[in-house]
Amino acid sequence: MTFKLKTLTASMLLAAPLALASFSSMAMDKITLKLAHNLDNSHVVAKALDAMAKEISTASDGKMKLRIYPGGQMGGPRETIELLQNGALDFTKASASEMEPFAPAFSIFSLPYLFKNAKQFDNVIHGPVGEELMQQTKEKGFVSIAAYEAGTRSFYAKKEIKTPADMKGLKIRVVATPTTLKLIELLGASPTPIPFGEVYTALQQGVIDGAENNEPSYVQTRHVEVAKFYSEDQHTAVPDYLVVSTKAWDKLSDEQRQIIMTAAKHSEEYEAKLWNEQVEQSRKDAIAAGAKFVQVDKEAFREALKPLYADFQNDPERSVWLKKIEAVSDQ
Ligand code: GCU
To answer: Which residue segment(s) compose the domain that 110 sits in?
Structure first.
């Protein structure tokens, strides 16, 4: 029985809330779990994680605590995932790109202009394809239990970028994955892998000419101060994931897991509700800080990036995921 329950997947646990809710939290052991991420506290994903921590505490009558270490104090996702793997940390947040080195399936989100619309993206990350994706890193010692919207990523730089030709020779910071490196190269620029927390200084000192991200991250990192032109090419939509170490997960009781899963689900809903507002607010804040939003020739970007599709189609491991996503409804 114990063994069987331990092998239940997150989605199966979610499907059986009634049976599990009948356990009593009176008998629950006290436990403090640790979560580290690299976002500023004002970021909507950080707020969603804070809300989750509160809910976990309330739902367990204070017996379960989730202590959060924000702002990259335990390092970026590369470091925190490693801490998860060796049992020194229980949870972290990582973008799909940061998961690509552990499971090629996640590379799908770095494929430019993949989604027909925002609805299809939501249906993927919150539907059966997303559930399957979240389990892909299991053999590496961690899985994801929530997916968060992260809008679209666009280039920002110290000069206007309107077409791929404007990117020629520019050094652009990327989250280093084979797909993002090639993406930048196809646009004639030089990909420069730099941890998120070091991008501001790199821009300021001219080590790089630009980077790419969604509007909230552009503003909250203050990159807006040192790269004034945000070019709306919207090349990718890369979600963030709440990641848990399987070591930590396996040690929890079913009741504890149920409390976490419910709070994680609520944190997804909370974040999704706030995301669009956050984008609007960030755009206003960016303009107030002197940024200029630049309209681009999207078709030219789409055309220049087409060879990435051939790469995916010719690779059996990745083409499977391309097909799965293309089959998801956009309604
Ligand atoms: C986004 C994303 C982060 C990621 C960051 C990056 O802001 O939400 O999870 O770390 O991009 O570019 O590194």
So the answer is: 5-149+239-277
Q: pLDDT (tens digit, 9 = 90+) per residue, 227-269? A: 999 999 999 999 999 999 999 999 999 999 999 999 999 999 9
Q: Is the CB of 175 under 6 A from ligand 1?
A: yes
What's the 255 CA to ligand 1 centre distance in angstroms?
32
* Shared domain check, 184 and 116: no
Is 213 near ligand 1, meaning CB less than 6 Å away?
A: yes
Q: Are 218 and 196 in contact (CB under 8 A)?
A: no
For residues 36 and 96, membership in a common domain is answered with: yes
Q: Is the C-beta atom of 90 inside 6 A of ligand 1?
A: no
Same domain for 205 and 100: no
Q: For the purposes of burial, counting CB atoms within 10 Å of the CB of 159, is it exposed (0-12), middle (13-18) or buried (19 or more)?
A: middle
Instruction: Give the single-character DSSP code of 34.
Output: E
Number of domains present in the structure of the chain: 2
Q: How many CB atoms lie within 10 A of CB 88?
A: 14
Q: What's the half-sphere exposure (Cβ side, CA atoms, 13 Å) at 289?
A: 22
The CA–CA distances, whole Å, from 254 to 33, 61, 197 equal 15, 16, 36
